[in-house]
Amino acid sequence: MEYEVVSVLVLAMLVWMGWIMGMERRQHGQLPPGPRCWPVVGNIFQLGRSPHESFTKLAHKHGPIMTIWLGSMCTVVISSSQVAREMFKRHDVVLAGRKIYEAMRGDHGSEGSLVTSQYNSHWRMLKRLCTTEFFVTSRLDAMRGVRAKCIHRMLHLIEQAGESGTRAVDVGRFFFLMDFNLIGNLIFSKDLLDSEMERGDKFYYHALKVMEYAGKPNVADFLPILKWFDPQGIRRKTQFHVNQAFDIAGSFIKERMENGHGGSKKSNDYLDVLLAYRGDGITEPYTFSSRTINVIIFEMFTAGTDTTTSTIEWAMTELLHNPRTLKKVQMELRNKIGRDRNMEETDIENLPYLQAVIKETLRLHPPLPLMVPHMAMESCNMLGYNIPKESQILVNVWAIGRDCTVWDAPLLFWPERFLEPNPLVDYKGRHFEFIPFGSGRRMCPAMPLASRVLPLALGSLLHSFDWVLPDGLKPEEMDMTEGLGITLRKAIPLKVIPVPYRGATIENA
Ligand code: HEM
Q1: How many domains does the chain have?
Q2: Is residue 18 included in any domain, yes or no?
Q3: Which helix (H) or strand (E) holds 498?
Q4: Which of 30, 31, 107, 142 lies 20 to 30 Å from 295, alpha-carbon distance?
Q5: In what order do the strands lie in the sheet with 495-500?
Q6: In a 10 Å sphere around its CB, with 0-12 CB exposed, 13-18 middle and 19+ buried, how is residue 431 labelled?
Q7: Is residue 11 part of a domain?
Q8: Within a domain: residue 125?
Q9: Which value, to the nearest 10 degrees, does the dihedral of the CA atoms of residues 384, 390, 391, 395 take?
């Protein structure tokens, strides 16, 4: 009997919610077209395991600007370069808000977070910090040695693990560890993953856990009534690991302050920059509280590691899958650099084919296929459709990069397309057919850093080693499946044998 009463109540609640949501949908006026949806759940069951692919298929039917209901969340999906141009050229400010998912929602709101901040004065202050301090050319130039050292050490570790060209290594893992250490060095001037740095290992563990939970689909994001219950525990678990990581970062900051830096002595690392801005953030609004500093540091790790790792792993995968392209890029590197020295960052400008390989990888495998969700801060009218206030905006850069009306043979890995006929197509947010870093105000602030690290790391891997598939695997037999977590990684990590090319053993940096 009790069971029946509960069932009736739940059913009544669902019908009521369905009715309310139906009302809501009707009130929104002329929304962009989209598939029919179910009460309460909307189109959730049409998303499948790869939402970017499902959205691409749906866009073929419903058009490049489309409404999808994720539970009660009105979502507008943009799938063509023309509509993306319209969004970023004419509605950039009003669509520059952020849709905040439960895993991203910290105990303290978006304090200190560039990624989850709404478009307001707090965001502008953080963005200015990125453009004038962290990713400005002068500082990037000054930190060139740090990048060279971290990449050189990665080559040394790969050579050791490959046992003189006899064992396959997980390239993505080596790059991830290098990148984590690189960001650690940019911020703290420390090797966090040093064998003696137990705290670094723990910080790494908690950062990985946060990325794991943030990449899981969460029903509470789509059915607001469930937010209070956090049914999958995603919010609770993410927050636990965030707090653990903050404690560790806090201990590094304390050490730096006790050692007398405290922002007074200018050094080149990001922590000194942040400490120079230290205050309570309230009485002097343009200063940062300790928590803000912690959040900024943590975000550098989470936003910066998986994205670049995904790109390097896919670049290596595509090259091994296309041996002629691999040979061509290696010829360019070896002809221009020779055998006797390491590749350096200043070589990049003389390596157009290597740069084209990076672009082609980002076209086919953008690490954030739907970018980071935007939100309409006010209602607006785009291309004759109403975009309601607080609706989520997803830009399907994966679909845009594979659009056959824009790209010849879009599924082919063919870096030459970026050399001829138009070598000027770049990822700086001006060419809307190719926006892996986004465009407009919310565009990735770290693009200048990534555009140095990616070609230097890939070029160094290809210059120092020949790469052989293990167990007689043929290029055409390679697994090319995508797996979606926080970024679009390979479903099965790439394992490949590094055969030293340059003769002399690579010394530890
Ligand atoms: C292959 C490398 C990378 C790619 C493709 C990439 C791509 C993106 C994209 C698509 C966005 C969202 C843009 C939007 O919402 O309109 C973004 C935002 C962001 N990225 Fe990157 N990113 C990369 C590397 C990095 C690195 C290395 C860092 C930091 C060290 C970083 C930090 C950030 C931050 C803080 C944001 C949030 C900006 C905001 O909300 O205003 N990214 N990135």
Answers
A1: 1
A2: no
A3: strand 495-500
A4: 142
A5: 169-170, 495-500, 465-468
A6: middle
A7: no
A8: yes
A9: 90
Token digits for 265? 């002595």
Distance 363 CA to ligand 1 centre (A): 16
Tokens of 90: 């004419």
C-alpha 440 to ligand 1 mean position (Å):
12
Please state, in angstroms and rounded to a whole number, the distance separating the CA atoms of residues 67 and 370.
15
Please list every protein residue whose CB sits less than 6 Å from any atom of ligand 1.
114-115, 299-300, 303-304, 307-308, 311, 367-368, 371-372, 374, 436-438, 442-446, 449-450
Ligand 1 pocket test, pick from 444, 451, 454, 489 with the greatest ligand atom count within 8 Å of Cβ, gives: 444
CATH number, domain containing residue 398: 1.10.630.10
The series of mean pLDDT values per 10 residues for the chain, 509 residues long, is: 51 52 63 93 91 97 97 96 98 96 75 90 92 94 95 95 93 93 92 77 88 85 84 91 90 80 62 85 74 90 93 98 98 94 96 97 97 97 97 98 97 93 82 97 97 98 97 96 88 95 68
Measured CA to CA in angstroms, residue 286 lies from 33, 70, 220, 283, 300 at distances of 44, 38, 35, 9, 20
Let me know if residue 26 belongs to a domain. no
Q: Can you tell me the distance from the alpha carbon of 375 to that of 398, in angstroms, rounded to the nearest whole number? A: 19
